[in-house]
Amino acid sequence: MLGGAARSVVRNSSGSDNPGPDGDGIGVFGSHHLRILDNSFRRNALGMHVEDSSDLLIRKNVFSGNPGPAILMQADRNQVRGNRCLRNSACIIVAPGNRNVIVGNRLFRDRDGIAIEKGRGNVVARNVVVGVRTAGIRLGLEEPPIGSTNTVVRGNLVRGTGRDAFAVSSNDAHSLLRANIAIAAGDDGFDVRSPSTTLTGNRAMRNADLGIEAVFGVIGGGNIARGNGDPRRCTNVFCR
Predict the structure, then answer these.
(1) 47-53 long-range contacts, Cβ below 8 Å, gap at least 24?
(2) Contact at 8 Å (CB) between 194 and 175?
């Protein structure tokens, strides 16, 4: 555990086989300006728990086989870049957290993918999500009724999910989904239940149901939906 640490580097270490109720591979609490690089966190109750910490760089770590989330982020202004997640309960959950940047991570066969459940001004960009069992990238929750605000989801590829590739709850507010690709989802490519969402330049291909299922009021432009199971392709937004 790192508590009250500052301007330190954690590199080339391993946190494994901590299955108990407090079994974090690594816990970071009340710390700032840390670099957590090139580590391995396997088979812990939770891979990494970040709380009340800021300006961290979490980069090129491997998280696998953790029955809880690989990364539980309850903190602001951190960067999660270039990590790999494999067969965890979820890869990255932000709940709550503001202005975090989640970029260039690779997810394979986790149960859940990346979720911004609560927070403001977070960015999720250029991640690759493959074969997760539920939603690939999710904003907010229906139950309990919480959501993020002003989240940007940009340039992500989500393929082969068990449910929707991208899911936006009705409690989410003013999020932007731009230039993302949803392929071969088990349900919709994009399931957008918040009318304040903007969808621009996304592609939805070969998904089991609709390319984009959106509620009335969603702003859309330049979206493409082809080869999806429902011949309508999209609802309440125009698709080419």
Answers:
(1) 47/15, 47/71, 47/88, 48/24, 48/72, 49/24, 49/74, 50/74, 50/75, 50/78, 51/27, 51/75, 53/28, 53/29, 53/78
(2) yes
Tokens of 49: 């728990």
The number of helices, as runs of H, and strands, as runs of E, in the chain is 0, 33
DSSP string, 58-104: EES-EEES-SSEEEEEESSS-EEES-EEES-SEEEEESS-SS-EEES
Reading the block at residue 190, the tokens are 């994009």
Identity of the amino acid at 206: R
Helix%, strand%, coil% for the chain, nearest 5: 0, 50, 50
> If DSSP codes are grouped into helix, strand and coil, which group holds residue 178?
strand
Q: What is the mean pLDDT of each run of 10 residues along the chain (240 residues)?
A: 90 86 89 97 96 98 96 98 98 98 98 98 98 98 96 98 98 98 98 98 98 97 98 96
Query: Could you tell me the two tokens for 104?
Result: 């260039």
CB 10 within 8 Å of CB 31:
no
Instruction: Answer for the pair 206, 186: CB distance below 8 angstroms, yes or no.
Output: no
Q: Exposed (0-12), middle (13-18) or buried (19+): which is 127, by Cβ within 10 Å?
A: buried
Q: Which of 169, 176, 177, 130 is nearest to 147 (CA)?
A: 169
Q: Which residues pair with 115 in a beta bridge?
A: 93, 138
Rounded to 5 degrees, what angle do the CA atoms 154, 159, 162 make?
115
